[in-house]
TrEMBL record:
InterPro entries: Epimerase_deHydtase, NAD(P)-bd_dom_sf, UDP_G4E. One of its GO terms (biological process) is galactose metabolic process. It comes from Erythroxylum novogranatense. Its EC number is 5.1.3.-. The lineage of its organism: Eukaryota, Viridiplantae, Streptophyta, Embryophyta, Tracheophyta. GO terms for molecular function: UDP-glucose 4-epimerase activity. Pfam families: Epimerase. This is UDP-glucose 4-epimerase. Residues 51-312 form the NAD-dependent epimerase/dehydratase domain.
């Protein structure tokens, strides 16, 4: 018998066995830590508020999740990435990798069974419901998509909250629920008469929430945002809608696309409105202020109460002013084309935000349009393909 051979073999298999044992230990440790992590989300913990952020891969939801994490909340994001970005979730995961801080669940809120399972397996203290489709123009072309993904999905979320005894809800609503009021500024008691499926779907969702909360001792805050712009001042997150949604896009997206030459220029539709310079007037609220309002709303939410608040600056800016700010912020002499009015646009929309100031000491701090756009442009410039680089 060859000694070297017979000694070599057991030696080798010993190494293999040792390696296998180490591997198994590693896998077990990983499994253990991941189950520990899941366990942290599945139990209420004294002093820790666990917030479900639906639509947390989207523009506003990701900024809200970032703020919640910064303020030591435990966050679960549910998003099916139909319009959001996994890249945004990855940024958050990198910033908050510790167990029990952030988890991402890929799921569709239209699937009641799945949503129920998520509520059964996680101990939520509150829900911030951002997930929605949110383009006025698209809503007039595909109304069912809006009633389904706004109204019906909100019902699914509410039913799951009821079944699992989650009592606090912060709901993303919109100034589009007011329609075309006769009087400006818009207060919370301005009658709601939405004029497009987006506004109507949001108004219906509000009504469902309000009716249900009356019977259920819930703590509800409905925030009606005006036109949201801007991005994280530290440049970690930005607004990156799907390219195919560009045509429905919002004015800030169009400004950046024009500055980058993706589109030939900006089209200003309507210069004969009864406003100082003839163009439409809107109230632009910076996303940093907006997420601040959400955190304050969460802190002020009270059982048996529904709080409804406008979230805006209270100051209207004309489209011409916006275009000037966009040119300065980007440093690009964007081509501007003046066209006739687009049907469905109304001359002037701006908020009276005094209620949220009175009751929650919230007011917009980022009121320099050019500065908000400059911050957003910085992210846009360094992320030419959105979160893909
Ligand atoms: N952006 C604005 O100016 C504005 C103004 C007023 C109100 N809002 C409201 O704010 C909320 C967030 O808007 P946003 O601008 O961040 O939009 P967004 O499209 O960037 O984000 C919405 C997110 O919801 C997710 N989502 C949609 N349907 C889903 C489903 N069925 N299941 C799981 N996830 C789903 C999308 O993937 C996306 O990540 C919306 O409710 C919108 O109506 C936005
Ligand atoms: C996201 O959810 C919608 C329903 O709201 C569904 O129609 C769509 O196919 C889903 N998308 C993905 C990528 O799962
Ligand atoms: C919304 O609902 C429609 C069904 O009406 C579906 O086809 C669509 O994929 C849904 N999701 C999104 C994100 O639009
Ligand atoms: C209200 O907010 C302002 C600034 O946002 C802050 O300086 C002030 O201390 C707050 N007041 C109260 C009573 O909390």
């Amino acid at each position: 018998m060859d000694l070297t051979d017979s000694r070599g073999k057991p030696h080798l298999s010993g190494k293999v066995i040792a390696a296998a044992v180490i591997l198994v230990i590693c896998i077990l440790a990983l499994f253990q830590s991941s189950t520990n992590n899941a366990a942290m989300f599945s139990r209420h913990e004294l002093g820790v508020t666990h917030v479900l952020v639906t639509g947390g891969a989207g523009y506003i939801g990701s900024h809200a999740a970032l703020r919640l994490l910064k303020y030591s909340y435990r966050v679960t994001i549910v998003d099916n990435l139909s319009r959001g970005n996994l890249g945004a979730v990855k940024v958050l995961q990198k910033l908050y990798p510790e167990p029990g801080r952030l988890q991402f669940i890929y799921a569709d809120l239209g699937d009641a069974k799945v949503v129920n399972k998520i509520f059964a397996e996680n101990a939520f203290d509150a829900v911030m419901h951002f997930a929605a489709v949110a383009y006025v123009g698209e809503s007039t072309l595909e109304p069912l998509r809006y009633y389904h993904n706004i109204t019906s999905n909100t019902l699914v979320v509410l039913e799951a909250m009821a079944a699992h005894n989650v009592k606090t809800l912060i709901y993303s609503s919109t100034c589009a629920t007011y329609g075309e009021p006769d009087k400006m500024p818009i207060t919370e008691v301005t009658p709601q008469a939405p004029i497009n499926p987006y506004g109507k779907a949001k108004k219906m969702a509000e009504d469902i929430i309000i009716d249900f909360s009356k019977t259920n001792d819930m703590a509800v805050m409905i925030l009606r945002y005006f036109n949201v712009i801007g991005s994280d001042p530290d440049g970690r997150l930005g607004e990156a809608p799907r390219p195919e949604l560009r045509e429905h896009g919002r004015i800030s997206g169009a400004c950046f696309d024009a500055a980058r030459g993706i589109i030939p220029g900006l089209k200003v539709r309507g210069t004969d409105y009864k406003t100082a310079d003839g163009t439409c007037i809107r109230d632009y609220i910076d996303v940093t202020d907006l997420v601040d309002a959400h955190v304050k709303a969460l802190a002020h939410a009270k059982r048996g109460k529904v709080g409804i608040y406008n979230v805006g600056t209270g100051k209207g800016r004309s489209v011409k002013e916006f275009v000037e700010a966009c040119k300065k912020a980007t440093g690009v002499d964007i081509k501007v084309e003046f066209l006739s009015r687009r049907p469905g646009d109304y001359a002037e929309v701006y908020s009276d935000p005094s209620k949220i100031y009175r009751e929650m000491n919230w007011s917009a701090q980022f009121t320099d349009l050019e500065e908000s756009l400059r911050i957003a442009w910085r992210w846009q410039k360094s992320h030419k393909n959105g979160y893909n680089g």
